[in-house]
Structure of Aryl-alcohol dehydrogenase-like predicted oxidoreductase:
Amino acid sequence: MLTKTDNATTITLWNGREVPRLGMGCWAIGGPFFAGDVPLGWGEVDDDESIEAIHRAVDLGIRFFDTASNYGAGHSEEVVGRAIGNRDDIVIATKFGFATDEKTKQATGAFADPAFIRKSAETSLRRLKRDRLDLLQFHLNDFPLEASDDVFDVLEALKAEGKIDAFGWSTDFPDRAARHAGCKGFVSIQHTMNVFEPVPAMVDVIEKNGLLSINRGPLAMGLLSGKFTPEKTVGATDVRATSLDWMVYFKDGRIAPEFAARLEAVRDLLATGGRTLTQGALAWLWARSPRTLPIPGFRTVAQVEENAGALEKGPLPRDVMARIDAALAGR
């Protein structure tokens, strides 16, 4: 369990380790993978550049990296493994539930049976070059509540066997977050959260149960980086070019107009105190709850440096948070 928050920009994890309240999300560095013709990655990547960026993050003090067994059909885990290996001063979180074919880069289904869970854990250990997985997260967002009991029984067994240190659920449903909160070893919820989606019900469950709030989408899939104009489009192999149901920030590869308007309403407020837009978005999350640990994605050293630079400025002031709430309420 998360035990305490020592100050605004560090957090103490379930294992007693104090780390900066910033992780790095490793979806993008996995490279392309697909469901048929539908891209699920973020386009082409340069592994050497990815590894250089990871090393720079470590140099800047980052100690939490989040990946998944399906990102790039396993390639993200392999890159993280090459860059970090079995260093015991760095926490690596990964996820299971979606199967992929390493050779074809195709998604092959979603599974949660005991044999699949165990095989996925072993594969992640091999790719990441770890003796034990620090945090293993269930990746199936809307998996049936009652059926999830069997899944977490397997995770408890893996913890008892020393294969994993802790486990959690990557889900946006508060009832699923609450279901296993009392289970020994259940320490975290990974969920969408950003300026546009403050998710009060999820935050309430997390704070009441002393869980770690791992924030995916902290930059709204890049929208809050400020690097996109209404005319700019993403590449054809970028997941943001799809029409998937959950792709709300972008439509047909461009910023969704309703979110472009919301961004303009808060742009100057997020830049308070000399922050970049990215740094303001991260600072908003730190001010939102003492349990938050955002995991912005990255592909370059420059992105890592900008993300890490937010730590020096800390959370947004309370009065700015109130003004952001008011600005968004008026949209």
Summary: Confidence is low (pLDDT under 50) at residues 1-6. Residues 15-329 form a domain with the TIM Barrel fold (CATH 3.20.20.100). The chain has ten helices and 17 strands.
